[in-house]
Specification:
The complex is a heterodimer. Chain A has helices at residues 8-38, 43-53, 56-67, 72-82, 85-97, 102-110, 114-126, 129-160, 170-181, 186-201, 209-223. Chain A is an all-alpha fold. Chain A folds into 2 domains: 8-161, no CATH class; 182-223, no CATH class. By secondary structure, chain B is mostly helical. Classes of the chains: A mainly alpha, B mainly alpha.
């Protein structure tokens, strides 16, 4: 059962557990806000990726590909491929939410994303089921509010800064940083090198199909790396 | 108009992903290779979008001016390798872009 009088101290503890995550999440939200303001789409549409898609890398890809004029089907496909991990998170949380009311599962599922799942797993391992729900709620709602606020702040700042700052280059640089930081893992390194190479070779492919092709090539190359035992 | 539809469709699909296994309570076990593949999608997507983004920026600028984004990327790569922080790419890369752009246009 879900108690609406959930223990406030567990909600607060979940929120506190989320705070360290915000240090990494808020700058990412700002970057997405800036990219939404710079992209050739309505800024409000870019911000709406926050509450609707609610997963940073997928939001970034959606905004970037819409800006580049990719075909709608290709953008949706790319956004969903990036979000396939949510199915695994869904399977992870299903264990803890079995037997809960439908309204809770519908609402709690909406808040599933990397940091909220990490905080929740910590909570469910240390607390009983019901207190775990409150812990999850505290962390997940704080994350949601912070994320949408960060995107809005980034969009406002991004729209008012002068052109010579070349803020449109923040996104490629951010992506370069993410890719370089993941080079240490052999499977990810193969995925990164293959994806970047195919993306460059397929640069003139129509409808941004090159990016979709590059992701497929990267994942395939990464899977050929030896499985760590 | 179509950008709104794209964002709503991607959002709806993402929500269905989140809900999928919670509603399908029958225990469906995922093949392990699919789980490995899902961990590779984000790095591959980031690398592909980064390469395409930098290349497109360079093509739009012409031969001489293209040196600025390339210098910014080089500075960003060195900064991330030295600090281990992915945000160093922006903090070092953007100033590098401004400096090289102003040098090339002066």
């Amino acid at each position: 059962m879900i108690s609406l009088r959930a223990d406030r101290s567990d909600i607060a503890a979940g929120a506190r557990a989320m705070v360290p995550w915000l240090a990494g999440i808020v700058p990412f939200g700002l970057v997405i806000g800036v990219s939404a303001a710079q992209a050739d789409i309505p800024t409000l549409a870019g911000w709406l990726t926050g509450p609707l898609i609610y997963a940073g890398s997928s939001q970034l890809a959606t905004i970037g590909m819409l800006d580049a004029g990719a075909a709608p089907v290709v953008v949706v496909a790319a956004a969903l491929i990036i979000n396939i991990r949510l199915i695994f998170y869904s399977a992870t949380m299903a264990r803890y939410w079995r037997g809960t009311p439908l309204w809770w599962r519908l609402a709690a599922a909406y808040l599933i994303v990397d940091p909220s799942v990490a905080v929740a797993l910590d909570g469910y391992q240390r607390l009983d089921r019901e207190r775990g729900h409150a812990y999850y709620l505290g962390g997940a709602v704080l994350l949601w509010v912070s994320w949408l606020a960060a995107i809005a702040a980034g969009a406002m700042v991004g729209a008012s800064l002068p052109a010579w700052l070349h803020l449109e280059f923040v996104i490629p640089l951010y992506l370069v940083g993410q890719a370089i930081a993941k080079l240490a893992n052999p499977a990810q390194r193969r995925a990164i090198v293959a994806a970047a190479t195919v993306a460059l070779l397929a640069l003139s492919a129509p409808l941004q199909l090159g990016v979709a092709l590059a992701i497929a090539a990267g994942v395939t190359a990464g899977l050929t790396a030896e499985v760590p035992r | 108009m179509s950008s709104w539809i794209v964002i709503v469709a991607a959002g709806l699909g993402s929500y269905l992903f989140r809900l999928s296994m919670i509603i399908l309570t029958s225990r469906i076990t995922m093949p392990p290779y699919l789980e490995r593949a899902s961990g590779l999608v984000a790095p591959a997507a980031f690398a592909a979008l980064a390469a395409a983004g930098v290349a497109t920026a360079c093509i739009g600028l012409g031969a001489t001016q293209a040196a600025a984004p390339l210098a910014a990327v080089a500075a960003a790569v060195i900064a991330v390798l030295r600090t281990g922080s992915s945000y160093a790419a922006i903090l070092v890369g953007m100033p590098a872009l401004w400096i090289t752009t102003s040098l090339l246009s002066s």
